[in-house]
Design a protein that fits this description.
With 111 residues, the protein is an all-alpha fold. The protein is 55% helix and 0% strand. It has three helices and no strands.
Amino acid sequence: MNTVKSFWLGWGVSAGGGAYYFAKKSINAERAARYEAEMRRQRLSESLEHSHPPQSMPHRGSDHAGSPSQEAGQDPAPTRHAPVTEKQRAKEKGKYEASEPYRAKKGDRFS
C-alpha cells in the first residue's frame, strides 16, 4: 500500500525523469545548432580559400617572406658573429652552459 512518503517519492522521480528528458532535448538541439554553424563557417572558409587564384611568385629582388630559406641568404647583417676571443665565447654561453662540451673518457669504467 502507498504511504504519503512513497506517494511524494514517486512524483519526485517522475518530475526528475521529465526534467532529464527536456534538458537532454534542449542540449541536443544546442549541439545540433553549434554543429550546423561550424559546418557553415567551414564551408564559407573553403569557398573563400578556393575562390581566389593562387598568386604568382614574386620577382627576383623583391620580398621573399614566403620562403625563409631564400630570405636567410639575403640577410644584410646576421644577428650573430662567431666569437673571436675566449672572453666573447664565454659571454655568449648561458649561465648554466659548460664552457666546453662534455667528452666521455674512453676505456673500461669498471676496472
